[in-house]
UniProtKB/TrEMBL annotation:
Species whose genome carries this gene: Trifolium pratense
InterPro entries: CDPK_Ser/Thr_kinases, EF-hand-dom_pair, Kinase-like_dom_sf, Prot_kinase_dom, Ser/Thr_kinase_AS
Family statement: Belongs to the protein kinase superfamily. CAMK Ser/Thr protein kinase family. CaMK subfamily.
Name used for this protein in its record: Cdpk-related protein kinase-like protein
Gene Ontology terms for molecular function: ATP binding; protein serine/threonine kinase activity
First and last residue of the signal peptide: none
Pfam families: Pkinase
Residue span, Protein kinase domain: 1-243
Assigned keywords, A-Z: ATP-binding, Kinase, Nucleotide-binding, Phosphoprotein, Serine/threonine-protein kinase, Transferase
Superkingdom of this protein's organism: Eukaryota
Kinase as UniProt keyword: yes
Amino acid sequence: MHGEVAYSRLPKGPKTKKKMTSAIAIEDVRREVKMLKALSGHRNLVKFYDAFEDANNVYIVMELCEGGELLDRILDRGGRYPEDDAKVILLQILNVVAFCHLQGVVHRDLKPENFLFVSKDEDAVLKVIDFGLSDFVRPDQRLNDIVGSAYYVAPEVLHRSYSVEGDLWSIGVITYILLCGSRPFWARSESGIFRSVLRANPNFDDSPWPSISPEAKDFVKRLLNKDHRKRMTAAQALSHPWLRDEKNAIPLDILIYKLVKSYVRASPLKRAALKALSKALPDEELTYLRAQFSLLEPRDGFVSLENFTVALMKNATDAMKEARVPDILNLMDPLSYKRLDFEEFCAAAISVYQLEVHPDWDKIATAAFDYFDEEGNRVISLEELAQEMNLGPSAYSLMGDWIRKSDGKLSLVGYTKYLHGVTIRSSNTRHR
């Protein structure tokens, strides 16, 4: 068989079976076929019908989408969308991406050219296409190959250590373009674009941004955070105040599994610190947590390992098995003899990194520390605290004000550092 194949990136309907046009390795095409087969079933995912090969070509038969690319619609509308119209687009993008991520699939090439409308109608359904660069990823795995399109690529992809969060950055770029009509990161050369992605902050001052709602701006900023740990997940983005709408069902989020896994394996002090933090959570953060808790279908107000297992299996596809997503349940084993009520679930499912982006983080942390002081704070030595945080003796000099002189317990600074976790890097390992 010939090593290169011709391949049409635009899905043509079952009747056309169009011959492919650009050369791509056969393995990539086979992987895309496997991916489309494994993921089939979501309304915003292009339908896969069949694939076959002859001596020279691989043919993929997919649903015909006659409405053109999202990119063309943006241009037809004079370069930008009103907020309400942008929301309709984003709800569809986020829903299908949340579905892919729960299945352990990262798309890696989300951009307006890779979303097609089913028809020319104004309210036509949007479909994601082109899984040629997609990959399966386990919940705890990092990928390291640089793929994607320069304008949409996330900083951590350029640093060669990334997972599903890179897709949310790309959605942030798409949202920025939808709302204002220009790209957030721009330069004349590819290396210039990469430099901009790594270092520049998007412009939110020029027209039309002053007339765009604060919620929409906050939404974009929470996706275009250069620290992937602080970025919203697709399920969280769907519960953001800008998109929050009773009619939108919030999907199950794999992040909950990762955070709960860490919580049930954490030390008693860490759990006490997180419990205090959960008591200080602002109301808007609870919308997402309530939705996730109810998706786990609690019994008598409690969830256990069985709830997490059943909820995951309810959403299972072949892709989820291929990506070994259910392996995470083995790491949640302490839950087989421990149940969580909603309050403790909140403590377990908080992402400290994401909360630190909240405009009122200082207030939240101070209130949480007051709760911690009432219940959970205890006398701790410098050595023990360093051990709790996986820090060596070299860190002692930095930790002077983390423990109160008055009673030997954690101080407010110590509490916030302990929640965040600290990595002490030697100067020669930093990215220049």
